[in-house]
Write a structure and sequence with these properties.
This protein is mainly beta. It has strands at about 1-5, 10-15, 20-25, 30-40, 40-50, 55-60, 65-70, 80-85, 90-95, 100. The protein has a ten-stranded antiparallel sheet with strand order 1-2-3-4-5-6-7-8-9-10, with no helix packed on it. A hairpin with a 5-residue loop joins strand 1 (about 1-5) and strand 2.
Length: about 110
């Protein structure tokens, strides 16, 4: 299923394959803005920045729920990950060089 604007430009795509449905909203340049995915054992929402890079991801499966926030800097591996599963919460951060950073309580 293709969602188009008044000029016929694609602004959204909805696909379904075997055990997965995917809905993506697009900007006027056809870059992704937001994706919602649902598979048999995993669900998720992904938010993209103005350049079409994945920036924020929220997901859940049978084992845990996760929130991943990436750096707005192109090519930077910096991120923060919060994951909560059966064994409890886990929070990790990496810097612009990809090095694991200590988590300091405030």
């Amino acid at each position: 299923f293709l969602l188009v604007d008044d000029n016929g430009n694609p602004r959204g795509v909805w696909t379904a394959k075997e055990n997965q449905c995917l809905f993506t909203l697009l900007d006027p340049d056809s870059k992704p803005l937001l994706t919602i995915a649902a598979a048999e054992k995993r669900r998720g929402i992904e938010i993209f920045d103005a350049k079409g890079r994945s920036y924020v991801s929220l997901s859940a499966d049978e084992f845990a729920g996760s929130l991943l926030i990436g750096s707005p800097n192109s090519g930077s591996p910096a991120n923060a990950l919060l994951r909560v599963g059966a064994t409890g919460p886990r929070f990790t951060m990496t810097d612009n060089a990809g090095n694991l950073q200590p988590v300091v309580p405030w």
